[in-house]
Amino acid sequence: MRLRGGSRGIHGSRGSRLSQVAVVVASLALAASACGKTSNEASQDDTKDDKSSGSSGYKGKGIGLAYDIGGKGDQSFNDAAYSGYSKARKDFKIGGVDMEPGDGESSADKVQRLEQLARQGYNPVIGVGFVYAPAVKEAAKKFPKTTFGIIDDNTVKADNVADLVFHEEQGSYLAGVAAAKATKADHVGFIGGVDINLIHKFEAGFVQGVKSVDPKIKIEKRYLTEKPEEGGFSSPDKGQNAASGQIESGADVIYHAAGLSGQGVIQEAGSQKVWAIGVDSDQYKQKALAKYKDYILGSALKDVGGAVYDLTKSVVEGKPMAGEQRYDLKSGRVGFSDTNPKYTAMKDVVAAVEKAKKDIIDGKVTVKTVP
Question: Which of 40, 118, 133, 279 has the highest Cβ tally under 10 A?
Fold first, then answer.
């Protein structure tokens, strides 16, 4: 388990990482030294004011963020969460610490991580990803005065838990429309990280969007793994191989919903000079993918960072959110990015996507959540 307190984490063997966390658990006073000088708690002056924020009376230590599979640096889902964490810390002048999952960790490890954050006084404590559902449920019972958030799951029901979920299918529909309008081969592809209900929503929206433009367009579909622990969200090589196969079959636009594995999809698409469509974050802006950005048509956005920010704001202001918080196109927390100049130059593609967006918001189009 890696403990992150800033933009750089502590690296090393799994054994050393566990020992660092053990030090944190053993003594709150040693938290900063356990994190090293890279820790937010140790390196930023604003942590001196962690116990207050303006006149709100906020008494928490800051935000506790626990990453999903793939960790920080995935250029997608986890990095989107980090953007909200970072913005909230800056805007509200509060502290924070972000933590990564260990390789092959158990549910008990996730419980320990969340409880550690709550015990140290972080509030809210947010689990990034549906895999944290059992852990959030257990930790929330033990720390009723702490607000917990979980992203991409709405099964945890408690007065101190906010379920932060999205209409992913809506953004994916827009990706499908863009793909269908941009393809020259009438052949596109979808690559999902793991064969689970959440990712089925991305596929369903994408396919419906493509078919809304031209039902004759051929659609390749591929899931990288059946279970998250098999690396579907954390293996760029798997994404690259899948993209290679779809391109070889004739697809010239590929949309991925595969987390860190999506880097491989984009790299392969860029190398083969076909379009890729990113997910969650605006992947055109990601430094790690700069070499391939000219071939990133756009990204189906899911403002995970905005959800993290919203929850933190509510806690700081003394009115913590609870229950299901469902974000959609109308709220602006779901969408399709238009930062690539090559995309904006394709006026017919842009117009089709904008019309589809309006039709969904106006209720003229209902997007499916099941393929």
Answer: 279
